[in-house]
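Note to self: the last two entries modelled the partners one at a time, which told us nothing about the interface. This time every component goes in together.
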Amino acid sequence: MAYTQIKITVKQPSPKLEAFVRELGVKKNEHLKEVMSQQDVTKKIHVK
Amino acid sequence: MTRVYQITSENGDEYKISLSQNDWLNLSGEIKELFGLDLISIELVRVSGNAITSSKTLATIEQLIADEFFGNPKAILFYYCDFLNPIPTTGKKLRPQEYRSRLFSDMLQRYISQHNLHGISEVVTIVEGIDEPYYFHIICRDHHLPEVQQIASKLQADFSK
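The predicted structure of the combined assembly is written out below.
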């Protein structure tokens, strides 16, 4: 098969799981800011 | 290792994409140790501009992600759909994370179809929190699905107490 998508829905997650995924989101936001400000770019690409 | 690409679109909008094994997730070390797989997290951010992202720019992003994935036979890709930063107005009443989730899946499916690829799986996990749903995508080769399912089960078990 070329491509398979598997969807998993966690309904009513435990408070611990929900806190973990929310914390991941906060960490990701911090990481995004680092990526934005990062001067050490591997490659610059101009789309034409 | 982290690779950061700076992409300038036809109309001058600027994006950065980061493909990283650095462990901001605090998960990749454990996954490497337990399953021998390299967890690569994908971050995509618009640095400037607000034009609609062109299909050529999307194709460039897709190719960078594909090169990272196919260049490493032990790679599994991880994309967490950001829910904190707003999305450009689309007229659709979607939460930012749902919009990003749909866009990511669309990009993946388009790339797979255009390149006639086989044996790729995408596991989309939605955690329905009280205030927000949270979306995660894992892309892997079909033969790594058992390991990915074990990782998902382990995470659920670790956080179910």
